[in-house]
Amino acid sequence: MKKIFFALVPVFLTVACLFLTGMAARLKTPVYVKVLMRRDTGSFSLYSDFPVAIENERGKRIGSARAGEKIKVRFPDSSIIVNRKLYRGSSLYFVSEGNINLGGEWLKGKIKVERFPAEGGFSICVVNILELEDYLKGVVPNEVFPCWESEALKAQAVASRSYALYHIINNKGAPYDLNNVSSQLYRGAGTEDKRTSCAIDATRGQVITYKNKVLCAYFATVCGGHTEVPYNVWVNFKDDFPGAVRCGYCDKAPNYSWDYSISSDRLRDRFAEKNINLGEIIKIYPSKKSRYGSRITEVGILHSGGDAKLRIVRFRDILGPENVKSGQFSVVKKGNRFYFTGRGHGHGVGMCQYGARELAVRGWNYKAILSYYYPGSGVKKIY
C-alpha cells in the first residue's frame, strides 16, 4: 500500500504542475481587470490632461475631446449622449495616453460605458479597464497602511492579486469583474504609494493556489482571535477554501474590542427601511454560531409579531458594518436600548490583516504569513 501511495505522489504533483503551467499559458499578459466604478447613474463627467479618444465597441475612433476638456456623459431614454452629441450602440470607450479623472479619482487604463437591457428598462455600467498590476497599486494602499512592514505589504499584495484573478477567471462574459468598493477598495492612481507599489512589483504574478486553483483569497481587518470560513458568511460560496485558524496576533489592533448601542425605535426603523417590519423587539440572540471562535452566523430577533432570522451579513448591513463591526458580539436590552459588546472588525474570513502585520513584525516572511492564514495553500508565480 505504501509503495502504491509513493508511486502516486509524483503523478499527482506532475498533474498539479501541469495544471498551473497550463493556467499560466492560457493567461494573456498583461492581465486586464474590469472594475465597476458607477452603476445606473443618470450622468457622469470625466477629463484627462491628455487628449481623449472616444471609440466604439469595435475600437473605431468616433469622437474626441481636447486635453483638459470636460466630458459629460448622459443617458436619456435609450441613448448615450456625450457633450450633446448622440452616439449609437450599446457601449463607448474613453481612451487617453494619460490618466483619466472620473469623479475626482485619477484612473489608469480606459473607461468603458455600457448600456444593456435590464428588468424594467436598461442598466448602465461605468467600468475602468486596466492592467491587473496597476489595479493593485490602487488597491493595496487603501486596504492596509503603506507604513506597515514590507512582508505584510507583500502578503496583502499576493492576497489581493489572488482575489482579483479568481474573479477575472470566474466572471468571463460579465460586464465587470470587481466592484471598486465592495470587492476590494480601489481608489485609483491618485492613492498609489511607493512602498506598496514596491511590494506589488516584488511579488509580480504571484498568486495563492489551493487544490490546484487560484484561491479567492478573502481577508479581513481584525479577525478577533479566530478566522472564519466563507461558507458560514456567504451562503452562495461553493468553491474550495482552506480551514479557519486560531489567531493570537491581532489583540492590539484598533477595534479588537468595540461597543455599540441603539434604541428600540431606531432599530425598528432600520429594519423598516429595508422592508422588514417588526413588532416591539424583545430580544436579539444568536440563532446559529460558527464552530470557529464565538462568531454568530445567524441572528434571531424575537419581537411581538414573531421570531425573525437573518444571516449575519444581512444583519450587519442593516445596522451598519461600522456599527456592528463583526459577528462576534453579545447583546443585552436595558430599558429602551440594545447594547452590543463585540470583538473583531470585518467578516473574519481568510487572512487577518492586523494579525499579518504582527507576524511581519515578529520576522515572518510573506509566504509564511499566507501559509498560516490559508493552511494547505501555496504561492505560485503564474506570469
List the helices and strands and how they pair.
Layout: H1 2-26, E1 32-39, E2 43-48, E3 52-55, E4 61-65, E5 71-74, E6 80-82, E7 85-87, E8 91-96, E9 100-102, E10 105-107, E11 110-118, E12 121-131, H2 132-137, H3 140-143, H4 150-170, E13 178-179, H5 194-202, E14 206-210, E15 213-214, E16 219-220, E17 257-263, H6 264-273, E18 281-289, E19 296-303, E20 306-311, H7 312-319, E21 329-334, E22 337-343, E23 351-352, H8 353-361, H9 366-373, E24 378-381
Parallel strand pairs: 1-13, 16-23
Antiparallel strand pairs: 1-12, 2-5, 2-9, 3-4, 3-8, 5-6, 6-7, 8-11, 9-10, 11-12, 14-15, 14-24, 17-22, 18-19, 19-20, 21-22
Helix pairs in contact: 4-5, 4-8, 4-9
Distance between the termini: 38 Å
Number of domains: 3
Shape summary: globular
Q: SS-based structural class?
A: alpha+beta
The residue fraction in helices comes out at: 25-40%
Helical region count? 9
Order of strands across the biggest sheet?
A: 4-3-8-11-12-1-13
Beta-strand segment tally? 24
Mean of all residue-level pLDDT scores? 92
Describe the 3D structure.
With 383 residues, the protein is α+β, with helices and mostly antiparallel strands. It folds into 3 domains: 32-131, no CATH class; 138-237 and 348-381, no CATH class; 257-343, no CATH class. The protein is 26% helix and 33% strand. It has helices at residues 2-26, 132-137, 140-143, 150-170, 194-202, 264-273, 312-319, 353-361, 366-373; strands at 32-39, 43-48, 52-55, 61-65, 71-74, 80-82, 85-87, 91-96, 100-102, 105-107, 110-118, 121-131, 178-179, 206-210, 213-214, 219-220, 257-263, 281-289, 296-303, 306-311, 329-334, 337-343, 351-352, 378-381. The strands form 6 sheets. A 7-stranded mixed sheet has the order 4-3-8-11-12-1-13. Strand 19 and strand 20 form a beta hairpin. The radius of gyration is 24 Å and the shape is globular. The two termini are 38 Å apart. Mean pLDDT is 92; it is low at 1-18.
